Amino acid sequence: MRLFTIGFMTMLPASIALAQTSTYPLDSLEGLRPNKLKVEPVTYQGRRAIHLTDATTENAEDRLVVIHGTKFQDGVIEVELAGKPGAGAAQAARGFVGIAFRVAADLSRFECFYLRPTNGRAEDQERRNHSTQYMSFPGWPWMKLRQETPSKYESYVDLAPGAWTKVKIEVRGEKARLYVHGVDQPALLVNDLKMGASASGNIALWTGPGTEAYFSGLRVSK
């Protein structure tokens, strides 16, 4: 289908392994399944993209746009994204924007990394320390993780609201790594993904409440 193309690359050394790479331009509505979000194709800062805004007033953590055909367990997810508080957003809005993975078919559970772009350059160090976040829906929301294990599932990274930001997520079993801005070292490490090593499911675009989000150029390698 037009939504993606497939290529191959060889991973060395050890034994020769074949990695399948799929790309999703995210420049149309084809193959997208929105949940509690409005979706439209746009051009944003010179780049063709998908624009996401709230379609609900619920304080829900399952605002998703599932991408058809992205069955995923282990591998690498790469995307360009941007997030900022939307018009009329509450004062607590941070431009929450990220990627969910291993999303169940009925959307009842998933793993997620996301960014809080307005925290990246805040004049408060504690807010800066909450620039990145891991959560697992529904049992491990961000607040529970922060209360029970402060700082373990959050970290600082330099961010600017509304700016295109390169994100990479590596997933292997119970471990995941979040990379931001194309750097070699991860911004956030998670060694105990809450759904366990055997979980699998689709990949989805994720936003939090009061967010205006943009996504472009998704790439998945397995």
Question: What would your notes on this structure say?
Answer:
It is a single chain. By secondary structure, the protein is mostly beta strands. 5% of the residues lie in helices and 47% in strands. A hairpin with a 6-residue loop joins strand 8 and strand 9. It has one domain: Sandwich (Jelly Rolls), CATH 2.60.120.560. Mean pLDDT is 93; it is low at 4-17. The protein has two helices and 16 strands.
Outline:
By secondary structure, this protein is mostly beta strands.
Features:
222 residues; mainly beta; Jelly Rolls; nine-stranded antiparallel sheet; 16 strands
Helix fraction bin? under 10%
User: What is the arithmetic mean of pLDDT?
Assistant: 93
Structural class: mainly beta
CATH level-four homologous superfamily name: Exo-inulinase, domain 1
Number of domains: 1
Give the name of the CATH architecture.
Sandwich
Question: Approximately what portion of the residues adopt beta-strand conformation?
Answer: over 45%
CATH class descriptor: Mainly Beta
